Amino acid sequence: MKPISGIITTLNEESNIEEAIRSLQQVCDEVVVVDSLSSDRTCQLAEQAGAKVVIQPYLGDGIQKNVALNHVKNLWVLSIDADERLTPELVDFIEKTDFESTTYDGFALRRRNYVGSRWIKCCRWYPDYLVRLYRHDRLRFCPVKQHSHVPTENTLRVKADLIHYRYKNCGELFAKPERNYSSRGAKILYLSGKKVHAWSPAAHGIGAFLVNYFLRGGILGGVDGLTLTLSIAQNSYLKYAKVLEWQRDEKVRSQENFEKVW
Predict the structure, then answer these.
(1) CATH match for 2-167 among 3.90.1150.180, 3.20.20.70, 3.30.70.1020, 3.90.550.10
(2) How confident is the model at residue 262 (pLDDT cuts 50, 70, 90)?
(3) What is the DSSP letter of 131?
């Protein structure tokens, strides 16, 4: 194992956490789990698997991931989600890399996204390069609450994959974006003062479909490409439809908790 600290942020990940920790332990000499008040056995299983568990109420994407940096012992960190796994090629790259002498501050890994057991390559789902292996004294996740990333300055793109079991089935493509993303994105827009017009939901939904299906290769992905494109378009439509509804319907707006975005 290398002097690398593995990082995982979790919320109710008891079905994934043990395998995620074992995946990191192939190359990391410690694993730190930052848990945002799970109600299942995530923390217990993480500790049993040999990880250090830090409890932190959820602060938002990038901010939450950076919490772990206060608890790691190594300069280099490898950050994954509970539903991600290292491939043998990635393990081999890490084992052969001299992190003490490298001139790079980080490495961007190719994330290989799956729906069920199907590897989806269209709509920018592959190669989905993300900096996940980095020196935390020079790089870290941007401190934003949604869609955070590690900057790519002085980083190298690695020809090795990180597997991401993104959705269990095609139904989750529609259920998860509606539950987690469209409402969250709509609240961010509404709280920022964004004005939405009657044509905005349809325009954004249709635009998202056309861009992802024709320009980003959804048309080449068969049934899965079409399904993914429709889910992206649905999410875009719903985000603007919800903002529009809050603007024009006081009763619906009064029932929404805008203090709870995350």
Answers:
(1) 3.90.550.10
(2) low
(3) E
